[in-house]
Amino acid sequence: MKLPLAIADGLLEIISPHSARARGREPQPASDRLVWFAAMGLMALGTVMVLSSSVMLADRRFGTPGFFWIRQMIWWFLATVLLVVFSRIDHRHFRTWAPLILILGLGGLGVALTLPPIKDVHRWINLGPLRLQPAELFRLAFVVYAAAFLARRGEQIIWARRWLLLVGVLALGSGLLLAMPEFSAVLTLWATTGFLLLAAGVRWRHVLPSIVTAVVASTIVVYGFGYKKARVDDWQAGLTMTGGSYQVKQSKLAFGSGGLFGKGLGEGRAKMSYLPEPHTDFILSSIGEELGLVGITAVWLAFGLLVYRAWRAAMRAPDRFGYLLCIGIGASLLVNAALNASVATGLSPVTGLPLPFVSYGGSSLLCTAAGWGMVLNVSRFRLAGR
Fold first, then answer.
1. d(C-alpha 253, C-alpha 266), whole Å
2. Are 51 and 14 in a shared domain?
3. How far apart are CA 180 and CA 67, in angstroms?
């Protein structure tokens, strides 16, 4: 009975922080309500845009216009539950559980690699009618583990030998991700780790060699082994409107046709078989076409608010682990959203990375909600003065 009560209390907190006292209970300190509203607002926009952008694709593939939307509503409900539950779990427990969480994340990658491929890749684990994407779980697991690892070493982290083990774990996970293949997840993980190392106090001159090594390794993987080289070539050709991938050209046309206020919700043309998968990786293009620059600005204001509040919670965190956890979750969101936007606008090669909180897909939505639930818990402790 405790879990349903925790969920009910958390939802009531969003509406009224005095609800628990009204029922004769001692209320828990309130978490950051701006994070609540920004996260829920993005998820609400996501469900609306998934419906708007996927109706024709769903009708053509499954004979049901609401196929993707119904599933997204299920994921939206589960993500809301996770956001509430994780906001009420003492974040310090995750420091203790970090090694186990990492093992689960690595185990998920290993299981996916041993299963038969789906669409010629090993990115998913079938769970009946649903699919789990273990790369999303590992990204969250690694951020939690990295925050605990760096917090445990304290000020000694300025010495490279104190954090090389973390880079070794990251390299192991990156190798498994590349075998799936999930190159975009590798990019976001390395970038997020860079933010975490600098926030932990590692000196620039120690981080820079790791950055150079990662860039060189990525170049060798792409050009030396031909990994995703076709996408890089398409991106280079797509720097002009006359070349490049069909997806990116249609994405640019969708942005351009939206103008300032957009064509109106549900009035976009990109979803009419022009833009493939407009509800997933390129949902930002659908937003730009139907809601215009105003809609895109609102999305980025919400992302900016989340990142700022994560940084604010980190600065006021009651412990070093909470500080690094907020930095890691905020940096992961920033990197993920920026990379998705750069793909949609043709500024970087196509990577297959969803837009956090907004794109269709359960694994990304659930893991993102769980991570921001942890941020909410850190803010709760800060407000409690503990």
1. 17
2. no
3. 27
Same structural domain, 20 and 94: no
Residue 99 lies in a domain: yes
Q: What is the DSSP letter of 177?
A: H
Mean residue pLDDT of the chain comes to: 81
Burial class (CB in 10 A: 0-12, 13-18, 19+), 288: buried
Residue 227 pLDDT level (bands cut at 50, 70, 90): low
How many structural domains does the chain have?
2
Hey, which residues does 132 pair with through a beta bridge? Answer: 125
The pTM score is 0.86
| Rg (the chain; Cα; Å) | 21
- Would the pLDDT of 8 be above 80? no
Phi, psi (5° rounding) for residue 225?
A: -110, 5
What gap in Å lies between CA 214 and CA 206, rounded to an integer? Answer: 13
Candidate ranges 12-26, 51-65, 199-213, 303-317; pick with highest mean pLDDT: 303-317
**Residue 35 maps to a domain:** no
Rounded CA-CA distance 358/108 in Å is 24
The domain containing residue 142 runs over which residues?
A: 42-384
